[in-house]
Structures are given as C-alpha cells and as structure tokens.
C-alpha cells in the first residue's frame, strides 16, 4: 500500500480523474503528461509505445510536453534509435520487460552521471538490478557501456543529457503498453516517485482500454474483409436485433426491405432458434454486449442456379461463368488460377470482362449485383 500525504493524494486524484473521465477513444496521454509535468515540477514529459516487429522495433505512438522540438522530431528520434534493435533495448526489453520493471516507477540519474560508470537506477543498487535481470557482473558492465554509448546520441539530440528522469513501464502482463516518464535537471524525490507509482495502476487501466479500442478497429476491418469473402449475405447484429454491419450481399437484402429477414435477425439475436437458411454465431468481445454474425447459408446452395441464369443474361462464356462461381465464393485471382489451371493474368482478363458485362466497377459491386439479381 502506497502512503501519500494529503497534497499528494489531491494531485493523484486530479490526475486519475483526467484518465478516467477522458472520452473512450480519445487519447488521454497528452493531457495527462502536461498535468503530470506540472504536478511533479518536471521540465519535460514524454510517453511512447513500441511495436515489436520480426526485424526491428517501431515507435507506435509518442506524446510529449515541454520539449523545444516539434512532436514529429521527437517521434523520429525515438523511432530511429529504436530501429537499431538490440535486446534488451536500453535498460529494458520492449518485447518482454522483466517482471521487476513492469508497472514500477524507477528513478534514473542523468546520462552525465551514468557515464561516470555509475548504474543509473537510484532506488535499486547495480548488483541487485543485474541479479534480478539475470545478468552477470561482466554482462552488467557491458550493458551499461552499450546503453551509455547508444543512449548518448538520442539524449543529446533531445537536449536531455544532463537531466535525471523518472519513468514507469506500463504493462499488461508481459506486454508493454507504454513508456511514461519525466525529466529535469534536479533529481526527483522519493515522494514524487511514490506519486508516479500510485498513478501507474490507473495508467495501466487506461492504456489497456485504448489498446483494446485500437485493436477493435483493426479487427473491425478484418471482419469486413472476411464477410465480403464469404460469397453470401452476412450481417453483424446487436443483441436487440439491430444490424450493425452488412456485407455487399447483405446490404442488397436490407435495401429490399424484407420484413421476414428483419424479424429473423431480431428473433435470432434474442436466442430464438432461426428457421430456414439463416445461422447466427455469437461474437464475444470483452467489455461489449453480445453481438452475432448472421449468415444466409441458403445463398450458397442457390449460387449454381444463379450463375447459370446470369450467364445467359450477361452473355458469359463458359470460362467466365466458372470464374464468377469462384468470385462469389470469395476466392482470390491467384486461388482461382490454381483451381482452373491457368495463369493469374488470364483470370484478371476474365474478371475485367465480367465487370464490363455486369456493368459494375469493382469486385464487391459484382458480388452485390450477383446476389441482387433475381
């Protein structure tokens, strides 16, 4: 339990309110960094995230307060430095911070002091850090020299070589959500370190939520692509039966205004077994109410007859009809070429002819036209 005096508790409550009351989806760190910098009488504050790629690390975001440089210059400096991948990077490994460093406020001496062969952690002796990170004395000395040499470039670039800094690695389990820190020429006090430590759990909850929101945006895009590739009408439905999203074929059904479909979707979302060729699969996301993926499975069984009818209407060749069959099943040109035993370029030519004959301009529009045709 972290004990704070009344003044520290008031500051903590104000900072927590900034994190808690920020609108979902709004980046809260820029505002919090400015307030944290003022509260702890720091000269500068910075926060950044890390994407761990197979070949290098990338800075996923960065926010700053009090720097003379433009935000873009700070982002570029951090990203360039991080691209020179080593593990651990600096005094921690972004891919998997050591447990002793996760969600813990640590106070570092300035680069100038650490260059005098002193371990930069104020609150943990050098031998203790090495032991907890599993380093031998020689490995610790080599790492200190490497960090001082590599950190020197970016610290001097940002004018921070004479500044001490206080930072916390905000983590969810072993995953780094963000590096949040403050710098100034005077060392930070133990009380200021306690305040950042007390704020870290709220930072962790907020950054977890913001990470989930970013991931849900990515997953939403992936779901849309997957729904288009189904080759049949599909919808995402809320627990009340409201259609949240529909693919091209699904939108055709909605535009027809068929009351039976709307009723089936509503009843299915309420747990009533669906009749006919409609299936509903729960979509479960932490923190969100139940949603369902509804698919009209009947469209697949009627696809062959539909292709045959449209082949006559659109004057398709036998090969164009085959290509259309595979397109509405969501297959790529490369996959279609493999099935038909021809070059991918040949399939592209057939697709161009299909778009012209169906009088549409895109593959998704062709699929929609396919399911729209009676």
Summed up, the helix count is: 15
Helix/strand/pairing class, anyone?
A: alpha+beta
Weakly predicted, low-confidence segments: 119-123
DSSP helix fraction: 40-55%
User: Count of DSSP E strands?
Assistant: 9
- CATH level-four homologous superfamily name of the largest domain: GAF domain
How many strands, what sense, and barrel or not for the largest sheet? Answer: 5 strands, antiparallel
- Terminal-residue CA separation: 69 Å
Spatial shape: elongated
- Provide the gyration radius in Å: 29 Å
CATH class of the largest domain: Alpha Beta
What's the order of the H and E elements? HHEEHEHHHEEHEEHHEEHHHHHH
Averaged pLDDT: 79
As laid out across the biggest beta sheet, the strand order is 2-1-5-4-3
- CATH topology-level name of the largest domain: Beta-Lactamase
* Count of all domains: 3
